[in-house]
Amino acid sequence: MLPAFFSRSLRRFPRLAPTLLSFNLLLKCVCSSLAPRDPGCYLEIALRILYEIIPGWNLAPDKFTYSTVVSALADAGRVDDAVALVHEMVADGVVAAEAFNPVLRAMLRAGDVKGAAKLFGFMQLKGCVPTAVTYNVLVHGLLVCGRAGAAMGVMRRMEREGVVPGVMTYGAVVDGLVRCGRVKDAWKVAEEMEKNGLAPNEFVYSTVITGFCKSGEIDWALKVWEAMVAGLALSVWEEMIGVGCMPNAVSYSILINGLCNVGRLKDAMMVWKHMLGCGCAPDTIAYTSMIKGLCVSGMVDGGLRLFYDMMARGDAEPDVISYNVLLDGLLLAKDLPRAMDLLNRMLDQGCDPDTVTCNMFLREFGAGERKGREFLEGLIMRLCNRGRNMAAGEVLMVMLAKYIVPEPPIWEMVVRDICRRKREHGAHTREFLTPFV
Fold first, then answer.
1. Which of 212-226, 238-252, 332-346, 391-405 has the lowest mean pLDDT?
2. CA distance 355 to 345
3. What's the CATH number of domain 1-148, 3.30.365.10, 3.40.50.620, 2.40.37.20, 1.25.40.10?
4. pLDDT score of 277
5. Which Pfam families does UniProt cross-reference here (predicted)?
6. pTM for the whole thing?
7. CA distance 293 to 276
8. What is the per-residue pLDDT for 140?
9. Cβ(329)–Cβ(303) below 8 Å
10. Most buried residue among 49, 163, 274, 312 by CB atoms closer than 10 A?
């Protein structure tokens, strides 16, 4: 059955014979995911238009007709039917890459790499020239299947055929190679982009830097960094500046964190200064990484200065990790007074301590000592007085995990606070629901 509006049009204009363009537009509407349709019958309508109605008007399907129906079948998961229709299309003397592309995409989405390779070979055997879309479908699909090497091979073939890969294609290959652990190959691909007249964007650089930092190859990460900012690849840097492509805060943070984690504080400070010089505001991760690097290197005072600089600038807010890094440095330096001052500031700023915070102070006071219990009990009281019962409950759980039994007043305080919160919540709920009852 044809859609009602089309049938009415044919009856209203009996002498107006529909053209193939009319049917192609009709198929496009029937198969469009944007149009309201019954999933159970729209494909059957499309197939009836293709096999019965179009031939009934002495018309022959063209590449647009076949491509529309093939794409609908592939999107619906009927890949075998889509492949069969492609073979029928070729047998009818119609060859169109637009019909092969959705089937290749569906096959690779299902992980059928061999089937996709076979269909791609059949496509070329029948004289159908792959387009840039075809190659991009193959590259993306192979990367989804974890076949980064094969995707790289497709890109090489793409270049040999004179189809220039775009930034998106290069970026996808770089990302796929990094995910497979082939970071050096990813960097080579990024370097080739520049040779082909395409400047790697911040996504490509950030991806490669992330890969090297995660694998602990900081020297390579620095090489990528140097290629991006100056020195060894000045032409790349100038081109990036010319198109307004600059490292973002994420790129800086990743590199600073990686350098600090392997003890390369001097290099991290170099990157930090460059970040500030470019007017890029450090985020919480960058600040925390630098503070940690300074504290681990024994420069706790420098870490504190950077922490207060962070508070003064207001570009980023310290989180519990930032506080824990500094507290750990102060406690390891046996500077308990300043550690307690920082803890007080942490509470005043509304940042709740976590399990790591408690364990660091227990390490200082001793889990089995009276001082350790008194410290945690005091922390619970201060949190309860500030109405932060969830954080107080977490500290209480730390005590229980360490087999430290709180005094009865502490139990009473936590339980009373929780019960009060529940009563208040219940009262607010009743107040909210009253107009609807």
1. 238-252
2. 18
3. 1.25.40.10
4. 84
5. PPR_1 (PF12854), PPR_2 (PF13041)
6. 0.50
7. 18
8. 87
9. yes
10. 49
Task: Give the pair of three-digit tokens for residue 139.
Answer: 């590259």
Tokens for 114?
């061999």
Counted residue by residue, the chain has a size of 437
Residue 200, token pair as written in the block:
């790697």
